[in-house]
Amino acid sequence: MISNRVIFLSLFTLASPVLLLGCGGDRPNPTAAAGTLVIRANGEDFVRQGFTSKDGWAISFDHVYVSLADLVAAQTEPPFQAETEDRWQATAEVTVAGPTVVDLAAGDATAEPLVVAEVEAPAGQFNALAWAMPPAPSGPSQGTVIWLQGTATNQGTTLPFTLRLSEPLAFTCGDFIGDERKGMLAPGGVADLEATFHFDHLFGDGGAPPEDEINTGALGFAPLAALAQDGVLNLTSADLQSRLSPADHQRWLGLLPSLGHVGEGHCREVELTR
Q1: What is the distance between the alpha carbons of residues 114 and 94, in angstroms, rounded to a whole number?
Q2: Looking at residues 88-113, what average pLDDT do you find?
Q3: pTM given for the model
Q4: Helices first, then strands: H and E counts in the chain
Q5: Which positions ≥6 away from 4 have C-beta within 8 Å?
Q6: What's the CA gap between 79 and 51, in Å, rounded?
Q7: Does residue 67 sit in helix, strand or coil?
Q8: How far apart are CA 156 and CA 230, in angstroms?
């Protein structure tokens, strides 16, 4: 199964929103031992609790809407390595067509990662995950892929901000990396998988040393704050293209494909066409 399956899934008409494939990916196998796979989306503490950018802006979020579609969870053999391989070899897959929009900032500072879907799945180790991010077809973030809304504060200046990003994205990822293993599904059991979003990659992390890679690569918040009008920052992707410096805009575009992770596991960003 090719990693950029997420590009083509929308071309198929599914009889139901969830398609369960057995060994070899041929057809559903109702006799296979099964459990429940819970696919979650996580903006981490950076979104739920706020953080300080590399250039000193304390950022808190009211809403972080992300649009998700064509989620594919797979058992792969050999284990898929997103950073070095273009293709995965799936022995089993489950697909959630979507689309759906989730607010990663929902709940309090200790909220659990959001449930995107719960699907019946064959028992085994789900060690690969892919998803697409097209513009939201409806809802509060309609027409956007990512909607960031909140407040940034620096040296007595408080700046309400809304960033409406319309660049489509798609990711294909290997095994979850974190403090706990994920994707290990026993017969009759329940297992989690997680699409993780690292928004500190955009703004940097004031809690890390300036020379840390998270800060040397990030844009920070100050170049955006400089575009505020009448004490408010309200920008679309088109605004960012026309108003950021060419160098800053190219840096911003280069950072968007680094948002998608599985825990700390890296993903490959693939082309999304609609």
Answers
A1: 19
A2: 92
A3: 0.86
A4: 7, 17
A5: 86, 170, 172, 270, 271
A6: 34
A7: strand
A8: 16
